[in-house]
Fold this sequence. Notes:
The chain is an alpha+beta fold. It has helices at about 5-10, 15-40; strands at about 60-65, 65-70, 75. The protein has one domain. The protein is built from 2 helices and 3 strands. It has a 3-stranded antiparallel sheet with strand order 1-2-3, with no helix packed on it. The model has no long low-confidence stretch (mean pLDDT about 70).
Amino acid sequence: MKSAFEQRKVHGTGRFSAWALIIGLAIGAASFGLIIALTIPEREVAVRPAATSALYQQPATKVGLVSLNNHGTLTVNDA
Length: 79
């Protein structure tokens, strides 16, 4: 005759709890990563390519009434 504990035991409970633990940890890690990503402010990094250094300065290229320098600035020339 089975004991009261063996009669109440449900097959597969151990496997279910393992999957629940894995899924719970995955959801927890994802939410933790999302919270960290949203709370840490982004840092503005000034990117200066080599073409803008003093050694490579070039005069603005004039085409009609518009000039474009090597910084990518588009200006309108006075006629």
